[in-house]
Amino acid sequence: MFVPEKVAQASPVVLGIDPGLTRCGYAVLRRTSGGKYEAEALALGVIRTEPGEHLANRLAQVHEDITDLLAEFSPDAVVIEQVFLHHNVRTAMSVAQVSGVVLSLAALAGCAVAQYTPTQVKGAVAGWGQADKTQIQKMVKARLGLASLPQPADAADAAALALCHLAMSPALSGANARISRRVAS
What we know:
Number of strands: 7
CATH superfamily: Ribonuclease H-like superfamily/Ribonuclease H
CATH architecture: 2-Layer Sandwich
CATH class: Alpha Beta
Radius of gyration: 16 Å
Strand content: 15-25%
């Protein structure tokens, strides 16, 4: 079955995801003008799963909640933190599993997909690749004009990912945002 092209709207919407199994941060941002970081937060939060639940059920919960976000906001792009080598193999595995769920859902929804490393995100949002969590929260607050620091840090990290993408991909309209896909029937 062929699915028609998704054409970008005048104000691109980006869904940022900070993948995690216990806490998966998300942020839906829309560019508000031609400025590099001028965006508004449409949604900001965390998907939580219970550590005592079976892995399959936890991944299914993330799947369901991401599906709901994609349906509600129809983002032009989904941005996710690139999985990197982690000292805790168990944590790295769960982050990779959640990332796989998100990447698959984004592709099925016809969204452009991008991944950035933590250093790239920190550099784009805070101007320094070694910024700490508090610095990122402060910059997200300033860039989005929020009244308070975004909490928890996972939600701020997701917003930082979306801001990074808006900064690094200013041409989210036209050919760059058109995604066509074929789904086997």
